[in-house]
Design a protein that fits this description.
single chain; 281 residues; alpha+beta; Aminoglycoside 3'-phosphotransferase, Chain: A, domain 2; 2 domains; 7-stranded antiparallel β-sheet; 12 strands; 20% strand; globular
């Protein structure tokens, strides 16, 4: 049973199983609450597809924990009320750290990405994860481009982005397990300098360099994030595509869905940079 009490406009307190939680943030596809003792996170979906994402996260977290990945513990999953409760990781997100501190953590993050790469599809196939090989992955990218850019770019410009996908995505890859949204804000560093990865609802199997591309983007495209890998020329092209176009596409899509003017403004800035970078303007 969840009781909701509005306080001061958008602020809310809810009671779940006798414990009170305060609204932490309401952007995105889930309502996210923090217990008043700051030990638990509670998530509830705002949209139908977010329910499916929470089901995915609820099934993933225990398996990832057993596998040795630095993830929060799943404390409760109530499928009927679509309520997920997980451990709250006390610390600061990586985007709030000085550049030198962030670079110090690169080798640790590399080890975790390598560990994730050893996870097999057969181990996680019951977690409702999508799995994309090259052909289906190109189709997914085209779908994201059309969905995210069609309200903002002409058909001819969108066709040019789609042609980029045909030109760049030519190298076969073995799909690996991915976080799916591995930006700095989803990496928490605690008081003992241990790092944790949160928000696994976007996970899937696909291109091995996808997560690396979002770390690279979060770093402000710091080449240090790429130099420790032996990437092929085509892998570097894919990293550049992901880190240039997808932040713009996803930010615009989120801004449109939430009717968030600030997010739309940021999305337009990112889109302009992408178009300049690829010679579209």
């Amino acid at each position: 049973m969840v009781d909701v009490l509005p306080i001061m406009g958008m602020s809310k307190i809810i009671t779940y199983n006798g414990e009170k939680y305060a609204l932490l943030h309401y952007e995105g596809d889930c309502w996210v609450y923090l217990s008043l003792d700051k030990k638990k996170i509670l998530k509830r979906p705002k949209r139908d597809f977010a329910y499916r994402e929470l089901v995915k996260e609820a099934s993933l977290l225990p398996k990832l924990k057993d596998f040795g990945l630095p993830v929060p513990s799943l404390l409760e999953w109530d499928e009927r009320s679509a309520t997920l409760v997980e451990e709250f990781i006390l610390g600061r997100s990586l985007d709030r750290f000085h550049k030198r501190k962030v670079e110090f953590l690169i080798p640790q993050l590399r080890k975790v990405l390598c560990l994730m790469g050893t996870l097999k599809w057969e181990t996680l196939k019951d977690c409702r994860l999508e799995r994309y090989v090259l052909v289906s992955w190109k189709d997914q990218l085209v779908e994201w481009v059309k969905l995210g850019l069609s309200p903002f770019l002409s058909f001819s410009k969108i066709k040019k982005v789609i042609c980029l996908i045909d030109d760049i995505f030519i190298e076969e890859f073995t799909p690996v397990f991915l976080h799916g949204d591995l930006v700095f804000r989803h990496i928490i560093v605690d008081g003992k300098n241990r790092f944790w990865m949160i928000d696994w609802s976007d996970s899937f199997f696909s291109d091995p360099v996808y997560d690396l591309a979002f770390l690279y983007y979060s770093s402000g495209k710091n080449k240090s994030w790429l130099h420790i890998y032996q990437l092929s020329t085509n892998e570097l092209q894919r990293v550049e595509f992901y880190s240039t176009w997808l932040p713009a596409i996803f930010t615009l899509e989120e801004g449109k869905r939430e009717r968030n003017k600030e997010e739309l403004k940021e999305g337009f800035i990112l889109l302009r940079k992408a178009m300049v970078s690829y010679g579209f303007v």
